[in-house]
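User: If only I could read backbone structure tokens as easily as an amino acid sequence. Those tokens are not coordinates but codes from a learned vocabulary of shapes. Could you go through the record with me and say what the backbone is doing? Here is the record:
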Amino acid sequence: MANTGDIKTGVIINLDGNLYSVVEFGQNKTARAAAKVWAKLKGVDNSRTIEHTWNSGDSIHTVRVEKRNYQYLFKDDTGFTFMDTETYEQIVVQEEMINAPQFLKDGQEAFMIINGDTDKPIGVELPDKIVVEVTYSEPGMKGDTATKTLKPATVEGGATVMVPLFINEGEKIRVNTKSGDYVERVKE
């Protein structure tokens, strides 16, 4: 059994029958009272975000999770289909279970987060940074690279990313999937 000392970012906790992922946590200490541990929790099996406070040393129910490599295949009416790269088993998940569905492209690798107790998927994480091709962008102005001015660019998959003025259509860029921000231009 885990206690509040085991709380860290990314841990999955079973709280009142629902699964929550720890987004942020900290301690409140006062001179007279016992220390309290607080956490901002994001629902894994629902879309709620809550804050919860425990007394320091209280027991918590953590959920054992596994990350497995899966490959994105396609999207249809039932959801997004992924294939286990080892067993070739296919799993269909809904869009709300994927951390950045706008950046998915056919054949892309992703991590399926599986509940170790029930062996059911509880989420899909894309790699932190991925390479995508710019499918549409207004042409940049020559010599306009001194400022950090950004322009919208559409990338494969349909997502819009703010990029520097020198990025043109057909170029490949690296994008942070957690924030949706441009990282760098990729030279081949």
User: Anything to note?
Assistant: Residues 45 and 54 are 22 Å apart (CA to CA). The chain has a mean pLDDT of 87. The domain at 2-60 is CATH 2.30.30.30 (SH3 type barrels.). DSSP finds no helices and 16 strands in the chain.
